[in-house]
Amino acid sequence: MTSLRIFFIGGLTAYRALINWLSLWIFIPTLVITPIFQILLFVYIGRSAGVQSDTFFVIGNAVQYAAVPCLFSMTNAITGERYQQTLAYILVSPAGRLPLFLGRALPVILNAMFVAAFSLIVSGLIVGIHVPVSAWPGIALVIVVSTFACTGLGLICAAIGLRVRETAVLNNVIFGLLLVFTGANVAVSELPGWMQAISERIPLTHGIRAAREIAAGASLSHVSGLILTELAIGAVYMAVGYYGLRLMELSSRRSASIQIA
Amino acid sequence: MIRRSARVLLMGWLFQFKQMSRSSFDSLLAVLWPLFFATVAFFMFRAGGKPDALVYASLGSAVMGIWTATSVAAGSALQRERWYGTLELLVAAPTHFSLVLLPVGLATATVGTYCMASTLLWGRLVFGIRLTIEHPVLFGLAIPATLLSIGALGFLMAVSFARYRNSWSLGATMEYPVWLICGFLVPLALLPAEVRPISWALAPTWGMRAIRHAAQGGGSPLLDIGMCVALGAAYVALGVVLTEAVLRAARARASLSLT
């Protein structure tokens, strides 16, 4: 029961306290307007270059932009404790680390889902793509799985953030790498072999591919392999992130550097 | 008077430029960020099978970097001074505040030259994009004209966002629209007709045209440079007038610090 309270209530409280900078004045410009313009940018570059369809870029970028809340909010939901001088108190508490850390991931996933879904619908309407109504439940499922997987990557960034001060730069760099490697704008088959090998092992790649196939008319069972792969990648990243946090916590205790990284 | 103002501008630019170059993390990000977009653009244009388009993309991506460096940093210039606790001191100083703020925009655009150089180098080394310049002198003129006009636009943004507490987010939001509307990677002819008047009113559009025409031939680079500089000067004039209005309102309501 205590673990469930820490997971749900603690996670929500920590999110509200640590992401207090995410007011509407920031949320609307950065998480509502910007993803739409990113999508429009790549739609028009695609038209200019004469590659792919508008649907390809709308879906790819809408799912990929979920990385912003996944990376930035997840990292801040943990490293923000340091700036508020509360990290040491959190880490000396007897609370179970699994609900403590993962509970903070749940609001992040919900936020990222909203960003991906909203930008997909609005930019789809602006550009005029046609996605069958029957495809939307499948796409919604893919968004849930993809944001879960990307939040796993965010958890790893949070672990690194326990030792590295410049997490905003780190998150921006990872967002840029995801833009190149996930196939959001360039089909993975167009990338060099070594890049394809990386693409297959990172969050969002399989989710984006699955969402595109569903929008093109594929059934959920047809893309179940892609969705399960995305889920498995997410689980691995979550596990690595969680153990990374534990490792950094122990290391910080040993070197007495919890507050001064 | 003119000499003193020029000195304030020069020293302010130098000071701001040195301050911005201090953080190795920020400098690294300034260089890396446009490279991600340039890489995607290079892959897309290469997949399109048009060899000329890669040079087009290379020049466009290079100028994108200048705007990236400017939009967030200039947008949040006043907010930064607020955090440092120096805003009131700068406003109260006998030097006109616009002379303090203008160098911020110019310095951020100067940081953008790192991005420009790294993007052109990236295109050459990784994607084999060979850039030949048709009119080197005009190309040499077009780059500083574009830098100055983007710096002037940054100054105008900095003043316009003065009353906005989270101005960095507005600055970041301006990044993609300007990339798109100014035709850095997309010909203006592809954009909806109603957007084009906005494009013509933006100096980076003309700067981009000047750089492209000077590098690839065609068009009239001198006219483009002239328009770019004229619009940049108009932004500065508008920014000075806005600075006066913003400071007057802030003094009247005692709201400069936004606390």
Quick check: average pLDDT of chain A? 90
Sum up the overall morphology of chain B in one term.
Answer: globular
Tell me the span between the first and last alpha carbons of chain B: 35 Å
**Tally of strands of chain B:** 0
- Unreliable stretches covering 5 or more consecutive residues of chain B: none
Order of helices and strands of chain B: HHHHHHHHHHHH
Q: How many discrete domains of chain A?
A: 1
> In whole angstroms, how far apart are the ends of chain A?
34 Å
Gyration radius of chain A, rounded: 19 Å
Which sheet architecture does the biggest sheet of chain A show? none
Counting H and I runs of at least 4 residues, what is the number of helices of chain B? 12
Helix content of chain A: over 70%
Looking at how many chains there are and whether they match, the oligomeric state comes to heterodimer
How many domains comprise the coordinates of chain B? 1
Share of helical residues of chain B = over 70%
Low-confidence stretches of chain A: none
**Largest binding interface between chains:** A-B, 34 and 37 residues
Radius of gyration of chain B: 19 Å
Key structural traits:
heterodimer, A: 261 residues, mainly alpha, B: 259 residues, 12 helices, 79% helix
